[in-house]
Specification:
13 helices, mainly alpha, two-stranded antiparallel ribbon, single chain, 282 residues, globular
């Protein structure tokens, strides 16, 4: 009876994950070891050439650029999101829900619309340049659009809520007792943060960083629109291989490498969290 109840409750969720996550990933892995057809598509001849081709300096540069942009985005999200999450966690309980809703509010609108909004704000005649020129700070519009700066701004804005939510969950579990004990023992606010708060919230930092990095490294909408197609990232490379070059096996190989990177990061995050929980229990 208990087993059948568990199957009924978990069955739809497991079926959803298998159909829309596991099977597509297995298809990607399977397609990555075949050859490209003469006119595109797949020729079912086993080969590992696609993975060897991904090591070409041309594509290695795309991997490096994607990792660099995603890393900067993650760092900015952490530097901006940590103080925000800290303030929300220390605010009165009655205000926390309202503040969290404000954090999640951008996620309720379409990502493409938000990206177009940034295009309007960052172009030469946009709000930012007009304000700076109106204040007399600059004489000519700044090149804020169609470069790495615009891509990083768009990615940081789009994925920072995930960082804030992960950090808030970690910070809110601490409670005020540890901070009060540190203060009673003569620790300054900075010392308390450095030796108490920050080490105990490392799992939240790891979780938020993995979320932002993984989502950023595979994004193709923001580099295409805010970068003007001048900056190729992994998402754009995979998109082009499937829909432009019609080289599905190579596109699958690139996607499989991204999947492996994501799995490695998620595994590292899980190991860090489990180790931290064992240390707290001991």
């Amino acid at each position: 009876m208990v087993l059948s109840r568990r199957i009924i409750l978990t069955g739809p969720g497991i079926a959803w994950i298998v159909l829309l996550l596991v099977i597509p990933c297995l298809l990607i892995l399977a397609n990555s070891v075949f050859e490209r057809g003469v006119y595109g598509g797949i020729d079912y001849i086993f080969t590992l050439e696609n993975y060897l081709r991904a090591a070409d300096p041309l594509y290695a540069a795309v991997f490096w650029n994607s990792a660099r942009v995603a890393g900067i985005t993650t760092l900015l999200s952490l530097l901006i999101g940590y103080p925000a999450a800290y303030c929300i966690a220390l605010s009165p309980k009655r205000r926390q829900m309202a503040l969290l809703i404000l954090v999640m509010l951008p996620l309720w609108s379409n990502y493409l619309i938000r990206t177009y909004a940034w295009m309007v704000m960052l172009n030469n005649e946009g709000l930012i340049n007009r304000m700076l020129m109106g204040a007399g700070i600059i004489d000519a519009p700044l090149p804020l659009l169609y470069n790495d700066f615009a891509i990083i701004v768009g990615l940081t804005y789009g994925y920072m809520p995930f960082m804030i939510l992960a950090l808030f969950s970690s910070i809110s579990k601490l409670g005020p007792d540890l901070r009060e004990a540190s203060t009673d023992l003569g620790g300054s606010a900075f010392t308390t943060f450095r030796r108490i708060t920050l080490p105990l919230t490392l799992p939240g930092i790891a979780a938020g960083s993995v979320f932002v990095f993984v989502l950023s490294v595979g994004n193709f909408v923001t580099p295409d629109l805010l970068g003007g197609g001048k900056r190729t990232m992994l998402g754009n490379l995979i998109y082009d291989q499937f829909l432009t070059a019609r080289d599905w096996p190579f596109g699958s190989a690139i996607a499989a490498i991204v999947i492996f990177i994501m799995m490695a990061l998620l595994t590292g995050q899980a190991i860090l969290i489990n180790r931290r929980e064992r240390e707290e229990q001991s």
